[in-house]
Amino acid sequence: MIFRQLFDSASSTYSYLLASRRGGEALIIDPVLEKVDRYLKLMQELDLRLVKAIDTHLHADHITGLGALRDHTHCITVMGEQSKVDVVSMRVCDGDRVTIEGLSLDALYTPGHTDDSFCFVHRDRVFTGDTLLIRGTGRTDFQNGDARMQYESLQRLLRLPEETLVFPAHDYKGDTVSTIGEEKQYNPRLRTRNADEYAELMASLHLPNPKMMDVAIPANVHQGLHQEEVARRGWSYSAQDAKDLIGRPEIALIDLREKSERERHGIIPGSLHAPYGELMDNIGKGGLIHELAKSGKTIVFYCAFGERSAMAVQAAQDNGVTSSRHIEGGMAAWLKTSGEFR
Ligand SMILES: [Fe+2]
Predict the structure, then answer these.
(1) Is the four-CA dihedral 270, 275, 280, 282 of positive or negative sign?
(2) Which H or E run contains 298?
């Protein structure tokens, strides 16, 4: 496995690059905007293709690299379903798996630092975001933080095997890694006996707001790909207009989401499944989508929120599939117009 812990000294943030092999797919956790060029260079040097970028939560102390990485690599951006970020390509729930070629992460919903905080477990290690830090824990006094909830989230992490490696999103002292067993024994915040005691401890901290907070939070909330550009070129259908496409023989509806998203949120009737990760094969000569278009079909992509499908339209157009379109706002918009909220 390729595993890199990358540091941003301005915000003391750790970002993590993972891949199963050289020349394969990669994912990154908690990237920092200012370091995007560095990540891109490293991935080029290691011959990696970024397919997913995850933020463990909405950060207050740095601007996320999610949007910039998406723009450079067309990767899928991932956050928790509770996140208030305007558009990410994929939202995960507790128990979901985030997979790339050769490796998968288990998502644990761990609210407390924020209400959208997730941790991700990969084999012998856990990426704890700002939930569990080395000899510390993330603050709970803003962004819908809740010390009692965090106490419960921490208990959940402490049930992982003691030898599990702990990789946090920050460290201000220069520590890079710990273990669950070590934190159990030496983390002063974990010495509290119950949620009330923990909440009392957290309330007594009186921390100043992060320097970047007023800039970072608004910037991080707006990470969505601008689907207007795709619409301006006439390549979009609104969810409402897309209703009329169902059952029409000249239309091929293509679902770009992953299996778990289809199972949770349902599908548009009659659509074909061709996951975003296989897009380039499918739109190339001899690929399923390329051939469908050649046979006279109009290709209509959709995904969860319209982000993957907007990127797919552009890529398909670039590959000569001039009939490609997408459904703006994706399945979320579709369900809204159907009066279904899930
Ligand atoms: Fe944070």
Answers:
(1) negative
(2) strand 298-302
One DSSP character per residue, 54-112 reads E-SS--SSS-BSHHHHHHHH-PEEEEETT---S--SEEE-TT-EEEETTEEEEEEE--S
* Cα–Cα dist 227/232, whole Å: 9
The DSSP call for residue 29 is: E
* Whether the predicted pLDDT of 280 surpasses 60: yes
The single-letter code of the amino acid at 82 is Q
Answer whether residue 65 shows pLDDT above 70.
yes
Tell me, in angstroms, the distance from the centre of ligand 1 to residue 212's CA. 11
CA of 74 to the centre of ligand 1 (A): 25
What are the phi and psi torsion angles at 38 (to 5°)? -65, -45
pTM recorded for the entire structure? 0.94
The alpha carbon of 223 and the centre of ligand 1 are apart by a number of angstroms equal to 17
Burial of 259 (0-12, 13-18, 19+ CB in 10 A): exposed
- Distance, CA 61 to ligand 1 centroid (Å)? 7
Q: What is the pLDDT of residue 342?
A: 47
Distance 328 CA to ligand 1 centre (A): 31
pLDDT exceeds cutoff 60 at 341: no
Sorted by sequence, the CB contacts under 8 Å of residue 174 that are 6+ apart come out as: none
Alpha-carbon distances, residue 45 vs 27, 42, 301 (angstroms) = 15, 5, 33
What pLDDT does residue 309 have? 97
Q: What is the mean pLDDT of residues 171-177?
A: 96
**Model pLDDT for residues 184-213, shown as the tens digit of each residue:** 999 999 999 999 999 999 999 988 888 888
